[in-house]
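Z., the sequence and structure:
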Amino acid sequence: MKRVINFCAFICLMAWIFLLFNANQSMADTYCVSNEANLIAALNEAKDNGSDDVIQIQQGTYNGNFIYNSTESFGVTIKGGYTVGCSSRVVNATNTVLDAQNKGGVISLSASGVSAHFMVDGMTLQKSGDSLDGGQGLLIITLGTVTVSNNIITKNSNSMNPSGVRIYGSSAITIANNIIDHNGGEMGGGGVDIARSDIVNLVSNTIAGNGTTSNGGGIRITDAESVTLTNNIISNNFSEGGGGVYIHIGNGTLDLTNNTICYNEAHVGKEGGVYLVLDSDSAIANIYNNIIWNNFNQYFFASQDLYINNDGNNNSLPSIVNLYNNDFDQSTIGTYIKIPFVIDASNMNNENPFFVGPHNGDFHLSENSPCIDAATSENAPETDIDGDFRPQLSGYDMGADEYVPYCKADFTGDKIVDESDIEIFSTAMGETDCTWSPALCDCDIEGNDNDIDGADLQFLSAELGKLGKPEDCSTPYDDNCDGITNEENALNCTIFYKDADNDGYSIGETACYCAPTGDYRQSSLSTPPDCDDTDENINPGATENCSTAYDDNCDGSSNALNALSCTDFYRDADNDNFSIDETACYCTATGAFKHNRLSNPVDCCDTDNRAYPGTVTYHTVEMQGNCPYANRWDLNCNGQTDYYYYNRLGICFLGICDANTFPGWLWVIPGCGQEGDYATECALGCNFTSINDYQYCR
């Protein structure tokens, strides 16, 4: 019987199977996880399911190490902040915490050799520990794109590798709106370490208190073609070089714009703030509107703020550097440029930016800051790190913060929020979708949403009656009504240098107060500065003491010559274990001074280790050096020329050839170390057979 297939039914069946398969696949695309086991399972399933996946993490704390290791070109997006069932999301990094508990890495995403795309958003990643395969707060390896946003990455530690964020090999990276702080590691950037990635963008991040034993305490970027840093605050990081930022680019472009890079430190005497290397003649560095201020290195050598190697390939042809409208120390101590050029007058030379409270992490500009209206619009971002529009006043500001007047609702600019501001607000109330400009949307103070509504009215009500006067040291009262009188960076303040251990010696860290306050008690930088501001017993005025292991007097060496309680050591420069009567006082045997008592007998020549009392060794080469005795053949130090090794003549008498029995010198015995003819045997007729030889001496 001939079977007839219904073609339409067949097509419908295939379509149903296709839809069923893809429905199952789409179900695998998104995961909602609520505990560690769920998260690990989702990562394991996502790594080889053939799709781009999204992992939604419910609010809570997740302990462990979370690893995605794939060979497929599909990536994964991991987001925190979801409510139960992942029905809604609150983006706040503190509500979703991934904690490695100091064992291994927190999140590791690897798709080595393929273009997988990764995103990590809205979480706290903390407390990583040593691991041979990573051990970072966040490790990403891919040829694809990477986005890291809205996270807190903190307290990660690694004694073998970078510790905060490490990204390797990506085609494009965006790191935005993160707090990356108090991470510490080796062999790379302490906070952020990026290598061999094409396009790198860091925007509106706070990177503080990170450290490394390599370059780039806050950020290290190497082998990149295009790097952009905008609106970042990079402070209080430390490293060997480039305490704040270390960037090494090839033949691409570096844009460093409106960043605040302050109070960073280098520990080997170089590049405290920013360390830039341009490796190609075609490389371009655009450095605009940055505050690079009060960075320092441990030994106060050059480039405390800015180091620019504009000839990384060493061919004596400089790369292009556009350096405009920045605030940095332009002295030889503050700045180093390999192939020097004239620094444009638009840059300020080491002007105090007058931050509101830098030692509390508040890098907003005070009203009296010289950085206000001092920047250029070229390359300037539309907003600052807080999302406030640029410019706020008549010009653009330097640094990550655009100064906003103390009272946002002071529309009239009379330094007080009162009925005159209410009139302006009432007129604008209900205005929507307005194009931002100071004239049109001043009343949009709630969040720059281009709508003037009840949310803005709440801001106005909260500020009603507020004074906007700046705090002033010349008045005894609280000028700006913030509850503090004469706080840091008030008008007419004085620069004070830090002396935390109160030993009378300061370091180069400063703060501006109306009077000495806290650790900031010295009116000038001590010369030389204190080398340890945590111990009052260590300072340039202290006495070096053998009883301590450290550098008491800050001269760069511990337990140096003539330190307190030192011991006289006798000199044995030629290291033959016999000393001379020359001493130096050290804490321990040092250099040529290695014996704690004079040898008996005394060495007669301390520049030649062949000469010492009692030697029986023979030599043919005269002693060298400035020895005490004029006779340089006195190797055994007895004050006399040593005996000859061959001390008789070879003779022939009455046909008896004495040289056959007793070889010896012919005719004359040569002097010590001199050449002569030496008879070894006699032939018939008393003819000598002789050789030319040296007279040997001790």
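The chain has four helices and 49 strands. The helical segments are 7-29, 36-46, 419-428, 454-463.

Let me know what you think.
H.
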